[in-house]
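subagent[fold] <- orchestrator: predict structure for attached chain, return tokens only, no commentary.
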Amino acid sequence: MGGERAGAARSGSMRGVFMVAPTKVEVRASPLPGLGDGDILVRTSFVGICGTDIHLYGGHSFYLEHGFLSYPFIFGHEYSGVIERVGAGVTGLSVGDRVVGHCMVPCQQCDNCQAGRRHLCRNLREVGLRSIQGAAADFVCVPAYAVTRLPEGLSMKAAALVEPAVTAYHACERARITPSDRVAVVGSGTLGLLSLMVAKLSARSVDVIGVAPSELELAGELGATRLLHPSEVPENAYDVVVETSGVASALSQAIRIADLGARVALVGLPGRHSLEVDQTSIALKDLSIHGILHGLNYYGHVVDLFASGRVDPTRLIAEVGRPEAVPSMYERLGRPARKQPKYLIEFAGE
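subagent[fold] -> orchestrator:
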């Protein structure tokens, strides 16, 4: 396999997993990305399939509706890999370095970037979503600043889950979880389970609220204090609520179950739904509501956390498959009763 990859790089072609139409995925030959000044070429090890990719597969996505993507395209933005080539002017990284890629690629020049709010870049590009080819291919080309180097001992499989974990980490940091806090995580998918794993490192207790029995079972194995159906959750019971489900009614529930002075971190995206918000309760409870957009500034923190062994993200992996297996993986992703939520595509592997 190594000779095949090297040959592909020399020939200027590679494999890519393309979404060619709604619910249709194909492995096709694709030109090798061009390497500009300041860029690096990464040989992909593993790529995670996430909820955004599922929406793209179904043909209903913000990125399709707003013209950031059009068929056919290579998807994938949760990835780990090894640097294959470096462009002119690249410093601090070398061929052979093991890295995790960032989904968000800021311009580094706008007012928000200059103020340290890179995730709010006004000229934002995103790997596999807007302006940059996706990582579900043998190689992906990104600016050198759009990766974080990995320490020895951290597996490439684990590193492929750093990208979703930075959002969970950001939510917990923004909510300022302390050892006295009672935390509720709403949702038991990938972001909910990662939020549980991060929150339980600091909180007094972490309850997980969900509806899928198999996912809740895994949450229990990962250390949740209690597993609750939404109908079972008491009012005014939590100091921190991390909402990851994206259900339209979740914000109302978060406000209802939050105690006086609580902090609410909103991760889930409910889509185009008309929401009625209890503004009176927000004011009278003196709640702090935080919108959480990714976690671009936390890649190093999450890499260190995974490397320390305090959080093992591989416990969330349901299946690892080769590129040719991706169509059948998408079919299984749509089925209920999955215990582990994360599916990985293997390119170069470990």
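orchestrator: received. Logging for downstream: Residues 47 and 96 are 18 Å apart (CA to CA). The chain is about 25% helix and 30% strand.
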